[in-house]
Amino acid sequence: MSKFNRIHLVVMDSVGIGAAPDANEFFNHDVDDTKSDTWGHISENFELKVPNLAKIGLANIPRDKALVGVEKPSKQTGYVTKLQEISRGKDTMTGHWEIMGLNIQVPFRVFPNGYPEDLLEKIETFSGRKIIREANKPYSGTAVINDFGPRQLETGELIIYTSADPVLQIAAHEDVIPLAELYKICDYVRSITLDAPYMIGRIIARPYVGTAGNFTRTAGRHDYALSPFGHTVLDSLNETNIPVYAVGKINDIFNGVGINHDMGHTASNMAGVDRLIETLKLADFTHGFSFTNLVDFDALFGHRRDVVGYGKAINDFDARLPEIYAAMGDSDLLLITADHGNDPTYPGTDHTREYIPLLAYSKAFKENGVLPVGHYADISATIAENFGVSATENGESFLDKLN
């Protein structure tokens, strides 16, 4: 018998809460991550209005320095703590995979100086198209098409670029490179980058339309991911026919493995919240697990070092929490966390190696408190124990502490 009928895990992508103990081993723009603090630095530079997260107990998460403008509640409604990463990475896939029970000791490769010439030549030979070398570096997805879209319209060359994540992205104007051709190229690139020396986490097709100065990306995006390197708790749930609903890019992150209900991509954080609420209201979703990623924090604001945009996005999410609560059943559990940091006040555009917050809320709670500081995989161990399925060898359940 499950303690909670349904568990809903929401990942605020990149919203870390302070440098991890091993942050000195991770470098961002030749500066180690020891001073990174996504939540803290945003609170110091933007007026956060997060009454709902505060009520759960956000300000009580163990920290050396209090979050500015986030008050401790007179009556806390949930349980909170922070979690440390064990895996050797600070990217989306590593974080999510560890949250679901894996320990990734061989990190995905990132390419801060762009992709090597031998890989580009293989893609050119297969596709019959030249690649714009000047775009081959970490780039904003909208900036890269603004800068090189006009050239692609004239020459038909491929726009290949990367980011701080282990991704290879191919932008293609649909009038020049049809979707079917773009997908075929991406599928080939996926096939030759599965292992060393590349081992790229995701290949992403990025189609767009429009004219110079007015390019817009379309809904034809498609991700070609790696499958998890081991058995996750998602697999355990799926193998016992427990519903697993994926909202946003979760299905891509796990390459569909262990997911039996993909609710699709979402265009924004708020669209992701809308989709989550729709999922919670599904008549046949009476038991099981939902897993949501809200990516705007990371993609739109963290990498672009936009403190104001990031802060507004946090406030906007907090304002939607009452709607999520209203869609939850009396015996549902909501877990809110992150997957890494992306401090918008830090040098460069890379992720930051940080603790992640964990906030737990349920209408069934009669008590509240601060849980011991744990590890990412504690979340998967808790989910596994609740639904009576096999956990992985990583993580310790905190289910018995939620009362």
TrEMBL record:
Q: Which Pfam families match?
A: Metalloenzyme
Which GO CC annotations does the UniProt entry carry?
Answer: cytosol
What does the record's cofactor remark say about binding?
Answer: Binds 2 manganese ions.
Which residues are involved in binding Mn(2+) 1?
A: 13, 339-340
Give the Enzyme Commission number.
5.4.2.7
Q: Which GO terms describe its molecular function?
A: magnesium ion binding; manganese ion binding; phosphopentomutase activity
GO process annotations (BP):
2-deoxyribose 1-phosphate catabolic process; 5-phosphoribose 1-diphosphate biosynthetic process; metabolic compound salvage; nucleotide metabolic process
What InterPro entries does UniProt report for this protein, alphabetically?
A: Alkaline_phosphatase_core_sf (IPR017850), DeoB (IPR010045), Metalloenzyme (IPR006124), Phosphopentomutase_DeoB_cap_sf (IPR024052)
Which pathway does the UniProt entry assign to this protein?
Carbohydrate degradation; 2-deoxy-D-ribose 1-phosphate degradation; D-glyceraldehyde 3-phosphate and acetaldehyde from 2-deoxy-alpha-D-ribose 1-phosphate: step 1/2
Provide the cofactor list for this protein: Mn(2+)
Q: Enumerate the Gene3D superfamilies for this protein.
A: Alkaline Phosphatase, subunit A (3.40.720.10), Phosphopentomutase (3.30.70.1250)
Say if the entry is tagged with keyword Ion transport. Answer: no
Listed A to Z, the keywords are:
Cytoplasm, Isomerase, Manganese, Metal-binding
Q: Write down the superkingdom of origin.
A: Bacteria
Catalytic activity, as annotated: alpha-D-ribose 1-phosphate = D-ribose 5-phosphate; 2-deoxy-alpha-D-ribose 1-phosphate = 2-deoxy-D-ribose 5-phosphate
* Cellular location(s): Cytoplasm
Give the Metalloenzyme domain ranges.
Answer: 6-390
Positions that bind Mn(2+) 2: 298, 303, 351
Stated family = Belongs to the phosphopentomutase family.
Q: What does this protein do?
A: Isomerase that catalyzes the conversion of deoxy-ribose 1-phosphate (dRib-1-P) and ribose 1-phosphate (Rib-1-P) to deoxy-ribose 5-phosphate (dRib-5-P) and ribose 5-phosphate (Rib-5-P), respectively.
Name the chain's protein: Phosphopentomutase
> What species is this protein from?
Pseudolactococcus hodotermopsidis
- Gene encoding it? deoB
